[in-house]
Specification:
23 strands; SH3 type barrels; eleven-stranded antiparallel sheet; 19 helices; binds zinc ion; eight-stranded mixed sheet; 3 domains; alpha+beta; 700 residues
Amino acid sequence: MSKAAPLTEKARSRTSLWRRATIGVHVDSEACYDCDISDLAPDVQNLNVELDDIDNFDDIYMCVGDDELHEFEDIHNVDDVDRCQDQLPEHDYELYDDSCVGWRWETVESESDSESDLDDDETCTGVARQLAEWMAVDNIKSSSVNKLLKILSPHFPQLPLDSRTLTKTPLHHDIVEISGGQYCHIGLKVVLLHFVRRYSVVVDCLELQINVDGVPLFRSSNTSLWPILCLIRNVAAVEPFLVGLFCGKHKPNNPAEFLSPFVCEADNLIEHGLIVDDKRVEVKIHSFVCDAPARAFLKGIKSHSGYSSCEKCIVHGEYAGKVIFPTVDDPLHTDEDFELMRDENHHIIPCPLRPLRVGFVSQFGIDYMHMACLGVMRRLLLYWKGPVGPLSVRLPRNSVLEISKHLAIFAAHSPVEFARKARSVDDVLKWKATEFRQLMLYSGPFILRGVLSDSVYKHFLLLYVGLRILSCKQLSAAYCDYANELLVKFVKDGEVHYGRSLLVYNVHSLVHLAADVKKLGCIQEFSAFPFESKLGHIKKLVHKPQNPIQQILRRLDAQMTFCNVSEVNTSPVVKSEHSCGPLLPGFANAVQYKRVKTEQFVLALSTGNNCILTNAGIPAVVKNIVVNNGSTHILCSCYRKVSDAFDYPLPSSALRIFRVESEATGNIIAIPLGDVKCKCVCFPDMSKNCSVVIPLLHCK
Ligand SMILES: [Zn+2]
């Protein structure tokens, strides 16, 4: 009996111990982030939108999206978390500190353990790891995991009772008070090294894209996040990662202080490179990709509503109820002009990024997501729908309904690459950038034909064709100057159709887009879409109002430990085996599948995902996907009748856009998967009793 007690103690000592690991600067949780949770219900109806200021809608609508509803639900579960914390056994509770960023799970082995104890603990460790992985990958609320842990407790007594102890996060983060808020610098070098090693990246140079933007956290308080994000542009399938994170009641009041850690590190990496296992990898900044307010903040220049706000030319705006830019041929700014601050009307303060050796004009691309999708296209649609804009272009109610009807048809034929299906025009104030993109780069000419007057329709086609060219690598390389001519004409003629009120900052910026494309690549290559997606993800990591930075870092660390979300899969992955055919001679023994995923796109046998262009540039419909002797083939039927879908300002076939018959009736042929030129959107053109085929632009 006397030996029994020490053995039990040893067994206890061997059980998994949860210890607090590294702790950053402690935060006074009462001093910050107070948020009245009773006041968080989203209330779209009460939005007071200044219709004449529709270029600023971004900020307003960031607060009322689906994310907010999710956030609202989570915040109302705060009580559950607190209750669970109260129920923690003493030894667990004392280890927990809400301001702690990292935890470490340490297992202390004992020599006298029995085999059965070891088995039990290994089982428990495995279950705990699976739970932690599930929690991190699916961003499960801690209150839900706590309930599950309580249910599992009798069966797995060694599992912790609190979800927060499941995640082990060996990284250390310091949080400092700067610029009127809190800032944590995760570090550019540390994340670059992590990604290069984790994804076994072999390149001589890392080309970085940097994004800085403000993200409001709650509708009932001014608390917002200002993350610094970085994307390695020349490495496929790696999503943006967090370099630094500011949180405060307002944007950083000292931009130079806020950006200083990033600037120092980036400058050092640009000069000395990144040393990976004794090999020097060059580091370059390709571009800064931000919306107009963030660019003005980073560059220390006038905001987009100012008279001298154009970043590319020295145009001085006029006031016509708001600032407009009626000219398109003013002298251009150069990088040298900017460094010397030659245009006194343009600069407010010395550029906070100044020590960095980048082109502050040429490497700050105008992001088409904010400028064209949320700026120009939204403005046009609101003018057509009303109640803003001149009456001469306003559509009658039945025409608006007609557009909505065709949008619904298009939505039913959308490929999986379109994250969001287009909604009705009546919901235009809630539309996301991807919905405007569908109309602006895909369906517009076919939905608006016969609805808009002929002259307004042709004017829209200038925008459509200009942006389609600048969206495609091959087309923009060949026709960049032509696209520029179209966009300049669109802006000049805009005054005739819509009046001077059209000529706001975003519309004026169209005349500079082609020059950015020549320097930075097609507009997909310097767009804010991947960053917006990451910002949405970061925002969802905040489950309660207290200590947002700590919550984000803890959950991000757990995801870095467990997630493989961006693994590069270079070989195609086939799914959903079937035996329905059709097959061709030579493929009798092939295994048939309904779906194949490549690095660029997903093809399937279903509507929306079954249209391709062959290597010869002929539109075809996928009839079967087969794997024969290890190689994947697409069995497809080509369209027999192919013609131009429009002919102004150029024949649509020059953009590889075609009108085809409703059904592909060509003989079935087999083509290797590698011979698929691109995936296409195919949708019925009701007025012509045929279909339209449009190459997909924004798949990887
Ligand atoms: Zn300009």
